[in-house]
Amino acid sequence: MGRILAVVSQKGGVGKTTTAVNLGAAFARRGLKTLIVDVDPQGSVRYGAGLKKGHATHGFADYLKGSRPLRDVILPTSLPWLRVMLVGSVAEDADHSDYTQQIAEGDLLPTMLATAAERCDIVVVDTPPGLGAITRRALASSDRVLVPLQAEPLVLQTTPQIFRGIQDIVAKHKQLTFDGILLTMYEAGNPACERTVQYARANVPPTLLFDLMIPRSSAVSDAFAAGQPVVVRTPGDPASQAYVNLATRLAERFAG
Ligand SMILES: Nc1ncnc2c1ncn2[C@@H]1O[C@H](COP(=O)(O)OP(=O)(O)OP(=O)(O)O)[C@@H](O)[C@H]1O
Ligand SMILES: [Mg+2]
């Protein structure tokens, strides 16, 4: 039985999708059979996961509606051990309320994740920003959670809320292990960034904060624009190395 790792944060734009896609690719490069599942109706995974040219665009929402069987929504990528389940046609819709309600009220998300975990070593779940119904349902069906936190000054004001949110989540879901907060888009030498990191280190228990940080790098957004995880497109980039190191640590923890 594989692990289900949810990537979650209250705030938007902190690097959840980037983390889900690059960790997924880094796990796959270690030879772990990996599935990235996008349950965020924004559907961003589609643009950066290294899907094959001319790939299908249906996904989880289409399976949920009953219009596609599970095997049709598991797509191959440029990496042999990496498969992707897009969110599917809901990403084209302006209104996501039916999709959200179906997830909130039904059992298909937990059932799908459990089935995926039987067939894979690791399932990485990319979630929408916030702790709404979709994210809560994903957390209820996951066994690990990782929270990216952008290394920027706003963090100084929001860390206590973020922390309370995580404590609530872990208290509610006994099966869930909190893997830690991951600082992202870190810029060495930027005083505001450095202060934020110092603040996080002073206020978050070391077991709950990865000492490893993801540096800000133009290679990350360039790779996304080219449709690839940065760990695949520019493996020597410091952000790629950080994601590979993070995947190594998590894989060791998961195996232990
Ligand atoms: N390490 C990095 N260096 C440079 N740019 C980055 C890095 N990580 C993420 N980005 C960029 O920051 C933006 C937000 O990242 P991403 O989409 O991963 O965040 P998100 O938390 O998934 O957002 P949302 O809440 O909308 O789902 C993207 O344009 C992405 O390319
Ligand atoms: Mg995202």
Overview of the structural elements:
With 256 residues, this protein is of the alpha/beta class. It has a single domain (3-255), classed as Rossmann fold, CATH 3.40.50.300. It is built from 11 helices and 7 strands. The chain has a 7-stranded mixed β-sheet, sandwiched between helices. The mean pLDDT is 94. Bound molecules: adenosine-5'-triphosphate and magnesium ion. Residues 16-17, 40, 44, 126 line the site of magnesium ion (MG).
Q: Outline of this structure?
A:
The chain has 256 residues and is α/β, with parallel strands linked by helices. The chain has eleven helices and seven strands.
- C-alpha-based Rg, rounded: 17 Å
Write down the CATH topology: Rossmann fold
Quickly count the helices: 11
Biggest beta-sheet profile: 7 strands, mixed
Measure the end-to-end span.
14 Å
- Give every kind of bound small molecule, once each: adenosine-5'-triphosphate, magnesium ion
Compute the number of structural domains.
Answer: 1
Strand content range = 5-15%
Name of the level-1 CATH class: Alpha Beta
Q: Spatial order of the strands in the main sheet?
A: 3-4-2-5-1-6-7
- Identify low-pLDDT runs: none
Keywords:
single chain; 256 residues; alpha/beta; Rossmann fold; binds adenosine-5'-triphosphate; binds magnesium ion
In terms of topology, how is this protein built?
Elements: E1 3-7, H1 16-29, E2 34-38, H2 45-48, H3 60-64, E3 75-76, E4 82-85, H4 97-105, H5 108-119, E5 122-126, H6 133-140, E6 144-150, H7 154-172, E7 177-184, H8 191-203, H9 218-225, H10 230-233, H11 238-255
The protein binds adenosine-5'-triphosphate (ATP) and magnesium ion.
Adenosine-5'-triphosphate binds next to helix 1 and helix 9.
